[in-house]
Amino acid sequence: IRLMATAQLLLRRASSAFISSTSRSPLFTRSRCSPLQPSPRAAAMASDAAAPFQKIQIQREDTVRHLLSVPLPSPPLRLLSQLEPVGLQGLFKMSGAKSRLIPITPGEAFSKFSGTPMNDPRLYHSAPQYATITRPDITFAVHKASHFMHQPTGLDSAKRTFDAYVVGKENAPGIVVLQEWWGVDYEIKNHAIHISQLGGGYRALIPDLYRGKVALDVAEAQHLMEGLDWQGAVKDIQASVNWLKSNGSPKVGVTGYCMGGALSIASGVLVPEVDAVVAFYGTPSSELADPSKAKAPIQAHFGEHDSFVGFSDVTAAKSLEEKLKSSEVPHEVHIYPGCSHAFMNTSPEALKRKKGMGLTDENKEAVDLAWSRFSAWMGRFLGSA
């Protein structure tokens, strides 16, 4: 009996160490969980079968601008040959290729004859002959490295495909529902289901902005959010809006929570197809979008005790309201007494998670009031089925 108990203890320790070392994989849970317990990451992601969601794939198309020897008048872009050596090395590191080691003079042509063996497979993953940029607001962002082209085209297209989850009646007004920094988990799916049942019904769509990743703790969620391509996420939102409109939704709104709240406001500025926005406890950075240039009606909700300074605290809420006044679009900014960040999350799992973050518990009156305002706003600008 002692031998069996010792063997079980050793097996448990070995399993725990293995799980800890593979904690980044969706297939394994963290070491704090028993090897016999289901992975919380899998539990967060595996609600599709039980929920009435249709999983689809949406394709967005970006304009690609090739920078090699192609004059681009749009500032702040410059020709690749005009970049300083350090900047060029940074470009190559981003593209997975080896950087050029010799100095570059302004106006110098950049080709396989410029002093580097760029077509040597021993030194490069591929022969990087030109860099591309996907959006004019990401200066010098590298999209890909290509084999040598004597006459690279100035414009091209690149397709991006991502998963999305749809629930609700076809041909009803659509609402794009944007995730928190956790990813597409049970909580955002609960919100989408609830939204689809409001009023006469909506068709709710959740784009997977993290491409399948779901965070288990605050550190991982922060890492995922900081690594997000925010401009690319706006493109995902635009593609989601267009998918709904091309599949029966006459009008489409956008809503989001935390990170998704910031992105929903950004979509009201940057995506002309958006008909209305409701944002919860999140504001976009000035680099992403200026709410004073909003084109869609925006309603926003914040908690009085939100401690995320500059992002969703009361100061950020009041700053947003002043900017929306300048935009002259219909807008409302509501601050809920006694509420902290994420006050709309009311599931048992969410309450446990909020407690671990030091956030206040459920405030049912505030949640009900926020949902009623949400329903009235979307009904006003989108109509109902």
Describe this structure in words.
By secondary structure, the chain is of the alpha/beta class. It folds into 2 domains: 45-60 and 161-382, Rossmann fold (3-Layer(aba) Sandwich), CATH 3.40.50; 69-151, no CATH class. 33% of the residues lie in helices and 16% in strands. The longest helix has 20 residues, at 2-21.
Distance between the termini: 67 Å
CATH second-level architecture of the largest domain: 3-Layer(aba) Sandwich
Task: Determine the strand fraction and express it as a percent band.
Answer: 15-25%
How many beta-strand runs? 9
Number of domains: 2
- Fraction of residues in H or I helices: 25-40%
**CATH C-level of the largest domain:** Alpha Beta
The profile of the biggest β sheet is: 9 strands, mixed
| Chain-averaged pLDDT | 74
The general outline is globular
Question: Which topology of the largest domain does CATH recognise?
Answer: Rossmann fold
Strand order of the largest sheet: 2-1-3-5-4-6-7-8-9
The number of helices is 10
Low-confidence stretches: 14-38, 46-50, 65-156
SSE ordering:
HHEHEEEHEHHEHEEHEHH
